[in-house]
Specification:
The protein is α+β, with helices and mostly antiparallel strands and 150 residues long. The protein has one domain: Ribosomal Protein S5, domain 2 (2-Layer Sandwich). Helices cover 43% and strands 18% of the residues. It contains 5 helices and 4 strands. The chain has a 4-stranded mixed beta sheet with strand order 1-2-4-3. A hairpin with a 2-residue loop joins β1 and β2. It is globular and about 35 Å long. The relative contact order is 0.18.
């Protein structure tokens, strides 16, 4: 193996790989909302936006790890009795958020906690959830931007 081939092999390892734009679409553990007190605060003091079949509850907060947005997703047990159905809905919500989170990460200042609630009565398809998610995230940015100006 020549020196050039060895350098090429080393540059293909995950530590040295340049993922570029794809790294912006990750949803790491530090961005997941797990703090129970923040969760309760969101439900009591949070502001809401609604685009059927998804509802966004958000609150401006501060986190010790300086993450701009922490997210939780919820599928109601009352409407979806089987865990398989709830898990699928939560998976769709997380995926729609993950693919569209550059809409907010590039346009906000401060730290926010989000909860995405699924309001529909039927099992959703991804297209429907993604359209609602895009609309919600754009509405959130517009609302917060206008509140800062006023």
């Amino acid at each position: 193996m020549t020196e050039e081939n060895r350098n090429e092999e080393q540059s293909k390892t995950p530590e040295n790989a340049d993922f570029g734009v794809l790294s912006d679409f990750s949803f790491p553990k530090k961005e997941k909302l797990t703090n129970k007190t923040v969760f309760e605060k969101l439900f009591s003091e949070g502001k809401t936006l609604k685009v059927f079949p998804v509802k966004l509850i958000y609150l401006n907060t501060s986190f010790p790890d300086a993450v701009p947005v922490k997210v939780a997703v919820v599928a109601p047990k009352k409407k979806f009795k089987k865990a398989v159905e709830r898990n699928r809905i939560k998976r769709l919500l997380r995926e729609a958020y993950r693919l569209n989170k550059p809409l907010i990460f590039n346009n906000i200042e401060g730290n926010y906690a989000f909860i995405f609630l699924y309001l529909g009565k039927k099992d959703p398809d991804f297209k429907q959830v993604e359209i609602a998610m895009k609309t919600l995230l754009k509405a959130f940015v517009n609302k917060e931007f206008h509140e800062k100006i006023d």
